[in-house]
Amino acid sequence: MASSRDRAICLRTHRFSETSQVLTLFCRKTGLIRVLAKGAYRRTRSGASKFDGGVDLLDVGDCVFLLHTNRDLATLTEWKLIEGHLALRRQFRAMVISQYLAEVLTVLLAEHDPHPYLFDRVRVALSALSSPRIEEEFIAIQLDILKETGFLPDFSSPADATLSKIHPGLIRIAETILRLPRDKATAQRLPRLSRYQSDPLTAYLAFHIQSVTQRDLHSVNLVLRPGM
To answer: Which range is least confidently modeled, 56-65, 67-76, 172-181?
Structure first.
């Protein structure tokens, strides 16, 4: 069985045993896959590990894996860490937002459906979320995820009762952000936003995602909690 090489962002981790993990990876060329990393926490006596001692949520790395026709889980055979996003982990709101985006991606992406542009866009956004421009970057990446996966709401729909409760100025902000150019997977000329503006838009987009997918987003309440 031939192995595949790809670059991936870790969207979900689950401890399978004392030494192994089950991971959900968003790969640039392969799309969303679920893998078993046998011996992820195991190290040799010299301290070496083929998984860098385990894979953490939101890590970016180069991976090698085997896809199986008779099993849901692929087998991860190698992982080399590229980015650990330490800046995100030092800021609580940035980390909460990033975890929410990881959950959104697992809900909206179909397995083995590649989205290379979206992969690049998410990777850039994860770095930008640790900057002072966190709120506008958060709204922009949410809109881009919805657009690239085909779930973008119709902001002009008169039949959307929930949308009618949002201030028209916020709807115009969302429409403006969607029209702004992206250069090298980076949104350009984003307007400065506060949580007073971003929270209602996030709440609406989360409601829309849950409505169209019939799946709950468990981390959205933490994102919207005052003081977070």
So the answer is: 67-76
With CA atoms as reference, report the closest residue to 122 among 106, 98, 87, 154. 98
Please state at what angle helix 116-128 crosses helix 92-108, rounded to 10 degrees: 170
Do residues 145 and 206 both lie within one domain? yes
Q: In whole angstroms, what is the distance from residue 168 CA to residue 187 CA?
A: 22
Task: Kindly state whether residues 99 and 26 are assigned to the same domain.
Answer: no
Dist CA 71 CA 65 (whole Å): 13
The structure tokens listed for 182 are 């992206």
> For residue 122, what are the domain limits?
87-224
Cβ atoms within 10 Å, residue 178: 15
Same domain, 200 and 104: yes
Indicate if 44 and 133 belong to the same structural domain: no
Are the beta carbons of 157 and 219 closer than 8 angstroms? no
pLDDT one-digit tens code per residue, 165-215: 899 999 999 999 999 999 999 999 999 999 999 999 999 999 999 999 999
Domains held by the chain: number: 2
31-37/186-187 β-pairing: unpaired
- 125 with 76, same domain: the answer is no
